[in-house]
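Researcher: Structure prediction, please.
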Amino acid sequence: MKTNKLASTIMFTVAAFSVSVAALAEPTVEELAERLERMQQEMDQLKQQLKKSATKEEVQVIKKDVATAGEWLQPDTLIHMSGYADVGYADSESEDGSFNVGTFAPIFHFQYRDLVMLESELEVTVGDDGETETALKYLTIDWFINDYMVLVGGKFLSPIGQFRQNLHPSWINKLPSAPPGFGHDGAAPVSDVGLQLRGGFPIGEIRTNYAIYVSNGPELIAEFEDGEYELDGVEAEGFGSDGDGEKVVGGRLGIIPFVGFELGLSAASGKATVTSIEDGDSSLLSNDGARDYDVLGADFSWQYKSFNLRGEYVETEVGDDTGSGTAASDGATWETWYTQGTYRFTQSKWELVARYTDFDSPHNSQDQQQWAVGGNYLFTNNFIGKIAYEFNDGQTGTDASLDRFLLQMAYGF
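Model: Predicted structure follows.
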């Protein structure tokens, strides 16, 4: 009876200590040290009493409860939240200037030991009509196989080139806009749904990184114009199903021969099918066959002291219809490239940026050549203010020909 009473007292002491630990609100180091010292003294007293009166089974139960109470000191799961947001102002030649909320993109990471991590990015935007739209940019489960290899499954940003997978967040992009052809319906793929193997390994003194993937194919949009059907755009935005059952295989290899310079080569190949027709008869798609879909890309980046020069080229080619369909039987090619230079003044928070882009599509109304110049002020490394002007050259009377003045504040967290 005395032993049971003693065990109950010990259990109550351990439980009370666990509750007191859970109730701590950011204690100081000194307070933690004092509490740990008191705990050690209490445990020493308990051990002495247990040696005299407790049974072996009771000792094991108490040890287990104490270990459970201290699990918070060594967590196996890490939870992390990051992301970015931006607000701005845009004034085009044909429209009145307007303030805008560009993007709010929280990014979540949940990692279990060094084995697996879930990562996801949401994109919340406010449209011109004031409506809020939410989209899932990517969501993957990453299995860390070893130091050189990670298996990624789910929806991931396209590894073709550098801009989409590494540079598109507004606090990283040095200009308030993306280069023409690197957005939706452009030459560069946006995202994919499938499996991806990525990592890096050294070759002597040369470092490399790689990404190899297999994914659902993109969808094609056709348009009825001037009495005939033609391909209007490629939607490579990570669809959750594959209408034609044909997969796309691709990847990128990056080579870093010396510090500050990287050269990347990208490619993808598969099939794509027309899924809808704008301003036309969709019944014509019933016999439309899968077409060849090929992407080629190259990119480079060179950092020398306060100067950075980078460039990227992407070409997407869709083949002719090989079935018996009558909608947009001819193939089409989208091509874009840009070169961008930035210079940050020594011991200053100011930097200058200039970018030239040439986007070529099957439609003259979408073709665009653009010079974008601007100045940035870096309040901190993750908070940047931008002012820029775009000189756009496109078909007269289209949006591609309108110059724009842009302001933006972007914050990465």
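Model: Residues 271 and 292 are 5 Å apart (CA to CA).
Researcher: Thanks, that helps.
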